[in-house]
Automatic annotation (TrEMBL):
It is an enzyme of class 1 (oxidoreductase). This is Ferritin. Belongs to the ferritin family. Prokaryotic subfamily. Its main location: cytoplasm. Keywords: Cytoplasm, Iron, Iron storage, Metal-binding, Oxidoreductase. Its EC number is 1.16.3.2. It catalyses: 4 Fe(2+) + O2 + 6 H2O = 4 iron(III) oxide-hydroxide + 12 H(+). The keyword Iron applies. Residues 1-145 form the Ferritin-like diiron domain. Iron-storage protein. InterPro entries: Ferritin, Ferritin-like, Ferritin-like_diiron, Ferritin-like_SF, Ferritin_DPS_dom, Ferritin_prok. Signal peptide: none annotated.
């Protein structure tokens, strides 16, 4: 059975994951209307993943005798100065999510809720990976700069990326 403190903290994270899904959906839409098809597909996939992160938490809360809260969401940012700014925001957002997961882990230890602590380890590992991917992509974006040909190739190649393969694929391209 979840304590009220843990239940509230997990519900807060449910909202953050749902908002993350919206943040990346807005990025996908922006990239799509700009004709950046590959980047757009990558963001649609990211958005789907965040929804899965949310659902995993929803199920966990309900299975442990809590009540998952489906709340209203803050509207995401829908315009960007360019694709570089968009990827900077993606990294910023993932760092924010990592901090929130860290806080949750801390609360689970304070509450001596080892089942929740164990459950959260999946999120801890996931955040390490997602931050690494975001940083690798940003390095690549900075390397491209204003080179249109570079952007064309990047937009084409990002479609091949998955969260788990991104770091290796981008790292070994040169
Ligand atoms: Fe990428 O944030 Fe979910 O966990």
């Amino acid at each position: 059975m979840l304590s009220k403190t843990i239940e509230a903290a997990l519900n807060k994270q449910i909202r953050i994951e749902a908002e993350s899904s919206q943040v990346y959906l807005a990025m996908a839409v922006w990239a799509e209307v700009k004709g950046l098809e590959g980047i757009s597909n990558f963001m649609y996939d990211q958005s789907d993943e965040e929804r899965e992160h949310m659902l995993k938490l929803v199920k966990f809360v309900n299975e442990r005798g809590g009540h998952a809260h489906v709340s209203e969401l803050n509207a995401p940012n829908v315009t960007f100065k360019g694709y570089k700014e968009m990827f900077e925001k993606l990294l910023e957002h993932e760092i924010f999510v990592s901090n929130s997961i860290n806080d949750l882990v801390h609360i689970s230890l304070q509450e001596k809720d080892y089942a929740t602590h164990n459950f959260l380890q999946w999120y801890v590992a996931e955040q390490i990976e997602e931050e690494a991917v975001a940083r690798t992509i940003l390095d690549k974006v900075n390397m491209i700069g204003d080179d249109k040909g570079g952007l064309y190739l990047f937009d084409r190649d990002i479609q091949q990326l998955t969260v788990s393969s991104a770091a290796q694929d981008l790292g070994s391209e040169e």
